Amino acid sequence: MLDEPIAFAASTDLARSREFYEGALWLTVLAVTPFALVLPGIRVTKVDSFTPQPFTVLGWRVDDIDSTIRTLTERGVKFTRYDGMGQDDLGVWTTPDGSKVAWFTDPDGNTLSLTQFAA
Question: How confident is the model over 77-100, as pLDDT tens digits?
Fold first, then answer.
């Protein structure tokens, strides 16, 4: 009955968001309207004002988090460090089950993440 989910993120500037999501993250832009930037599984919605939430709003599963971080860093993405998280040199936190997680933000301050799940 339900198909694939669609994630939503807010943006005050869709052109800036497009530059980030398409340029830095290499996501395919499916459509741009005055109201949204549409990507596979994601709709970046235009808002007049926005206060970022203090939690992750969107994330991706990756096979090799270290390689993905290095590639995104080369594209200008800055990874976030949190006090007390015990992150490694790349900003990766290893969960108790061995999964690896890293966080970064989009231009509007939405917290995004990468996760490499434990085998």
Answer: 999 999 999 999 999 999 999 999
Nearest to 38 by CA among 22, 25, 23: 22
Q: Confirm if 14 and 44 have CB atoms less than 8 A apart.
A: yes
Assigned domain for 21 exists: yes
Q: Running along the chain, 119 residues long, what does each successive block of 10 average in pLDDT? A: 93 98 97 97 97 96 98 97 96 98 98 96
Q: Has this prediction a pTM greater than 0.70?
A: yes
Nearest to 107 by CA among 18, 26, 29: 18
How confident is the model at residue 119, as a pLDDT? 85
**Residue whose tokens read 């270290």:** 66
Residue 66 domain flag: yes
Number of domains the chain is built from: 1
Could you tell me if residue 2 is inside a domain?
no
In a domain, 93, yes or no: yes
